[in-house]
Amino acid sequence: MAWHWIASAWGSPEGWEFREYAPTKPGPREVTIAVRAAGVNPADAKHVAAPRPGQQLPVAIGYEVAGTVVAVGPGATAVTGPVSVGDEVLAFRVRGGYATELTVPAEKVLHRPASLDVEEAANLLLAGTTAAEMLHTVGATAGETILLHGASGAVGSIVLQLAALRGITVIGTASEARAEDVRALGGIPVAYGTGLRDWVEEAVRSLRRSGIDAALDAAGTDEAVEASLSLVSDRQRIVTVAAPRQAEDHGFRALAGTKPESAAFRDAAREDLVTLAGRGLLRVPLSRSYPLSEAPEAHRFLSTGHPGGKLTLVPGPESGVTEAHAGSHDRSGGDL
After folding, report:
1. What three-state secondary structure class fits 236?
2. Does the structure show a pLDDT above 50 at 250?
3. Is residue 291 a contact partner of residue 314, using CB atoms and an 8 Å limit?
4. Residue where one domain finishes, among candidates 254, 275, 296
5. Is the distance from CB of 208 to CB of 184 less than 8 angstroms?
6. Of 46, 110, 306, 322, whose CB is crowded by the most CB atoms within 10 A?
């Protein structure tokens, strides 16, 4: 038997249920993974907060995991090649990742490089593929200067690193407290707040550039949208993952992993991201890990908007049911 989190009613994480269940045996082209780490993302809660087309209750929670293959179905081949029992893997866009064990299509599975930390692996692909698609959508190329809103967040931190690898200069908005985080990943930090456009223009002048070539919005605030519209004349070079209504109103582009074209691009981007992370060229900033049994608590912390890095759920031998794994582990060194 295994344990997993499900939403048996639409609503907040406080209403989720932690249940024992029997994972299915892998069928053709499927594998079963013993989960070592599950990534925590805002989408996990957002997608069960209210009814969604084509989705029925109960819903198993969680989209990305890392762990060990414990069973392989006939004809199963991972994205990265043949897969065997004992392989260390990560999997993304799965259903029910908040679990101790789950069976998934092998087409969702990639081998985890030994050099890639298991908690980083569990948090890499949702944010990573989103970041890659944002850069692709605006056509950012070497030598250009782009504006990135939410530069210190999960998606923003990956955008910064991918842009640096490609020779793209990024001016990134963030809080003053996170400015050094942005700078450490190759960005030029600008504090959000009153006068944002002026601060961005000053940063452009300091670089001796002619202006902002494209804008990427991972924040979704009115201020971010207004700055993007005022600084980038070509609205096809403005993209958001956080303000779809404003995008529709103002004629710029909004991305979502539920759209077929986005899903296809993100699937194609997975292997390159894993390769970069395995080579040490891409890292996932981590903040805290929680026992699997404390998933709602992890989301309460995530909802503060200042997690300082990615959060991870870690199943223990007791599945988090006993007190042996009570309490969270702070990867950032701050107080809990």
Report:
1. helix
2. yes
3. yes
4. 254
5. no
6. 110
